[in-house]
Amino acid sequence: MSASAVFILDVKGKPLISRNYKGDVAMSEIEHFMPLLVQREEEGALAPLLSHGRVHFLWIKHSNLYLVATTLKNANASLVYSFLYKTVEVFSEYFKELEEESIRDNFVIVYELLDELMDFGFPQTTDSKILQEYITQQGNKLETGKSRVPPTVTNAVSWRSEGIKYKKNEVFIDVIESVNLLVNANGSVLLSEIVGTIKLKVFLSGMPELRLGLNDRVLFELTGRSKNKSVELEDVKFHQCVRLSRFDNDRTISFIPPDGDFELMSYRLSTQVKPLIWIESVIEKFSHSRVEIMVKAKGQFKKQSVANSVEISVPVPSDADSPRFKTSVGSAKYVPEKNIVIWSIKSFPGGKEYLMRAHFGLPSVEKEEEEGRPPIGVKFEIPYFTVSGIQVRYMKIIEKSGYQALPWVRYITQSGDYQLRTS
């Protein structure tokens, strides 16, 4: 069982929307949430779950809103948080930006959605594409009386409508990997992992069945093939359309896809990743006068690949002023409100090495306390490349009408939480 009630509050804790699903949590109970939140924050003991008497508040913050679910029982917290984040996703699909104003302007639709999203504490239809079939944007013009229940609500395949037709049948597959990396000042890798997602954009007629094949190590072991070019996927999470029993039996990813964009699966690999962009920095601080920073960046990925939109964020002292820069490529700018220099490189080929020098003035009075030096952050995107070596080996499309369809595959590696410590 999930939540007894769901509330949406503004930044002051005033309820904008409340939906009581079981009637066992009084409206007055939500008045205790904000004082409790402030108190815990002041004590440094803030947690995503707060309790007052018999009532448990499970909350998330999005933009200038608090979404709070309440329960009197020992509910499945993971399910409740998953529901709250899914609610944010659905509202964002409807209103583009989920803000206090969008809630006030669309409260009729919000109540309609909350009625469909959960019933008597149980999550129901949470797919925005299906909800949009029968809950329209015109909240004040919603018809009363007879209402048509779309077939997708009662179908075995609730995420796809019947009768979809396209002149050209295509599937676009994006394999996107984010590299999380933390390197200490000595150059040792402290944290290294790859978080990947496979996203699909489906333009297929009818009710097709798709089968996706990857170079999955477990599958290669089952079929007796070489493991050399295979990858071992961990923490695999699938969209609800995937037949999990089939995957458990023979590692086949078989599914009837939703129409349009969706995330098919996500995975993680805890593997030692060689830093794709290596950063070295030298900082010389001349007492009472100036500081000079030299940063060297090197692309440690294959030469035929190119990193695009590279941004290297270099921390500088909070009292620095009068910036001057010299770069061998790209441009540098000082962002004083964040105490960083951002070195931007539009195109960074593998194997190349570039330099950036920065000169700052310092006030004549030296600060008494030595500041801690934050790490250097790096952002980048490398198309046509995956650091793990994952590959889409095939995509089979089976539909009773027998049409031919083209699958298109694109690989992208990008930075996740990518930091290099300098001290």
Describe the structure.
A hairpin with a 3-residue loop joins strand 14 and strand 15. The protein folds into three domains: 5-132, 2-Layer Sandwich (Beta-Lactamase); 170-273 and 387-420, Immunoglobulin-like (Sandwich); 277-365 and 373-383, Sandwich (Immunoglobulin-like). It is built from eight helices and 23 strands. The chain is of the alpha+beta class and 423 residues long. The chain has helices spanning 33-43, 77-95, 100-105, 107-117, 128-131, 151-154, 217-223, 244-250; strands at residues 5-9, 15-20, 49-52, 55-62, 65-71, 118-119, 122-123, 170-183, 189-203, 209-214, 234-238, 253-255, 260-269, 277-286, 290-299, 306-315, 321-327, 331-335, 340-349, 353-361, 376-383, 392-398, 406-420. The strands form five sheets. It has a nine-stranded mixed sheet with strand order 11-13-9-8-23-21-16-19-18, with no helix packed on it. This is AP-1 complex subunit mu-2.
How would you sum up this structure in a few lines?
The chain has 423 residues and is of the alpha+beta class. The chain is built from 8 helices and 23 strands. It has 3 domains: 5-132, Beta-Lactamase (2-Layer Sandwich); 170-273 and 387-420, Immunoglobulin-like, CATH 2.60.40.1170; 277-365 and 373-383, Mu homology domain, subdomain B (Immunoglobulin-like), CATH 2.60.40.1170.
Please render the helix and strand layout as text.
Blueprint: E1 5-9, E2 15-20, H1 33-43, E3 49-52, E4 55-62, E5 65-71, H2 77-95, H3 100-105, H4 107-117, E6 118-119, E7 122-123, H5 128-131, H6 151-154, E8 170-183, E9 189-203, E10 209-214, H7 217-223, E11 234-238, H8 244-250, E12 253-255, E13 260-269, E14 277-286, E15 290-299, E16 306-315, E17 321-327, E18 331-335, E19 340-349, E20 353-361, E21 376-383, E22 392-398, E23 406-420
Parallel strand pairs: 8-23
Antiparallel strand pairs: 1-2, 1-5, 3-4, 4-5, 6-7, 8-9, 9-13, 10-12, 10-22, 11-13, 14-15, 15-20, 16-19, 16-21, 17-20, 18-19, 21-23
